[in-house]
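INFO batch 0412 | record 1 of 1 | parsing
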Amino acid sequence: MSNRDTEATLEYHEATKHSEQSVGASRHFLDFENQPLGFKIYRDLGAIALLQSFPGSDLPALEVLSLPVAAPAASGDNERTPDLSTLSRILSLSADGF
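INFO prediction complete | emitting tokens
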């Protein structure tokens, strides 16, 4: 199943979602002692060291924003796997300030 094939996911959601009747007919409560972890732990995978510094750019931000967007690949497949440098930069900038 590809990431674009959502039919099975929607069928599962429809079959398992709560309704107003199911919520009103039962005494649901939050069990704070039995919460799932907020993140996944992959015990069998080694850590990947992310880059700590990135090359700068001499382009002003407004000029970068005005650059044309690259055309999609001829195959029509727009999915791309980021390299280590790109992934490191995304994660570093998204966690900036934490």
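INFO post-check: The mean pLDDT is 82.
INFO record closed
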